[in-house]
Design the sequence.
């Protein structure tokens, strides 16, 4: 009987078992502080999970930021690092506080060491620059997303050290190196919102009447004292004109409205958790013009009266300008917003169906409804998972 031929062990290959796959994708998001930083990060997280259901996504934040409540509510983990305030107008001053700066960088580096992310994604704000510096030191690729028309300090620095840079408005493409225009990631409930189809249900959800002219008011996630004061002074006039109001005052603000039983509803809430329903309920928005707000009202074609935040580096006025130029919005400087302006400008506009239709038509097509998917493409390329 012949013996079996010898086998060269070095030439033998073994097929992977059926169903074998690469390790779960691990992503660290750095975008804490305000809803304008947190919400785009969460929209990206949702887009990644749709593609990689087993992805492990963690957000970096500070104990003072909204991420401590918003992120867990969406099912993702949060790791906290010290907060370092960065002077927007003078980036060099940021490095004059090395103890606080490097404490935040060391904390971010520890999170990276513990969580071993495949990629870090920053959205600006207090935690982004420590995350960028820690990622660069650890050799972890990172992605920069800039929402505002005027880039902040963290993203201006971070963009120098990565080729993965995404921006939201055309004018910012030339402001940051390697920038690609994609828009601001929006949660699917807003990006896919059909306002007329949902309007009646949305108004019912907030205790509003189905057929009255409806004004939505909010001043960003923390509210705005100027807007709150003007609305409190104008409320009687608006209610007498048959206008109902949904007003998010901010969690630390109080708005007292005197109304009669025969008046239309005036609903005051500290914070709007269902922005899609708020947009669907409204005929007109009166509010700040943060980058996220501008992106959302453009996507859902909601006419707006913008009152830009007057401090910082003036980016809110720049954010709103394209919508104003297109005829989809009106801008009122913060120092000029009074009860009389609300009564005469806002009160007349919200009942002018012809003008509102023109503004909706002007906004149609200006929003980027697929920015979450486009940013996810970039993140996956950076992570080597495209």
Sequence:
């Amino acid at each position: 009987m012949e013996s079996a031929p010898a086998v060269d062990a070095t030439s033998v290959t073994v097929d992977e078992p059926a169903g074998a796959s690469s390790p779960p994708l691990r992503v660290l998001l750095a975008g804490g502080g305000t809803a304008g930083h947190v919400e785009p990060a969460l929209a990206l997280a949702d887009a990644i999970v749709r593609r990689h259901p087993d992805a492990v996504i963690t957000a970096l934040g500070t104990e003072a930021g909204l991420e401590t409540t918003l992120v867990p509510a969406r099912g993702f983990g949060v790791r906290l690092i010290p907060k370092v305030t960065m002077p927007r107008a003078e980036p060099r001053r940021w490095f004059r506080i090395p103890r606080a700066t490097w404490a935040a960088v060391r904390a971010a580096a520890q999170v990276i060491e513990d969580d071993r992310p495949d990629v870090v994604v920053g959205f600006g704000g207090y935690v982004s620059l420590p995350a960028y510096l820690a990622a660069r030191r650890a050799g972890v690729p990172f992605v920069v997303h800039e929402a505002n028309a005027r880039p902040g300090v963290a993203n201006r620095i971070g963009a120098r050290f990565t080729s993965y840079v995404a921006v939201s408005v055309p004018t910012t493409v030339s402001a940051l190196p390697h920038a690609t225009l994609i828009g601001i990631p929006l949660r699917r409930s807003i990006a896919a919102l059909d306002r007329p189809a949902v309007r009646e249900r949305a108004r019912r959800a907030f205790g509003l009447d189905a057929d009255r002219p409806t004004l939505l008011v909010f001043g960003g996630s923390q509210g705005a004292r100027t807007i709150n004061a003007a609305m409190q002074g104008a409320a009687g006039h608006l209610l007498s004109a048959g206008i109902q109001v949904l007003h998010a005052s901010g969690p630390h603000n109080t708005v007292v409205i005197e109304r009669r039983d025969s008046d239309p509803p005036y609903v005051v809430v500290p914070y709007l958790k269902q922005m899609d329903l708020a947009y669907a309920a409204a005929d007109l928005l009166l509010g700040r013009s943060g980058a996220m707000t501008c992106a959302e009202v453009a996507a859902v074609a909601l006419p707006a009266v913008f009152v830009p935040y007057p401090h910082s580096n003036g980016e809110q006025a720049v954010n709103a300008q394209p919508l104003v130029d297109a005829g989809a919005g009106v801008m009122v400087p913060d120092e000029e917003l009074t009860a009389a302006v609300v009564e005469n400008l806002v009160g007349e506009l919200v009942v002018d169906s012809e003008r509102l239709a023109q503004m909706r038509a002007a906004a149609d097509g200006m929003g980027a409804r697929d920015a979450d998917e486009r940013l996810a493409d970039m993140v996956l390329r950076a992570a080597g998972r495209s």
About this structure: The longest helix spans residues 98-115. The domain at 26-186+369-382 is CATH 3.40.50.2000 (Rossmann fold). Residues 16 and 59 are 34 Å apart (CA to CA).
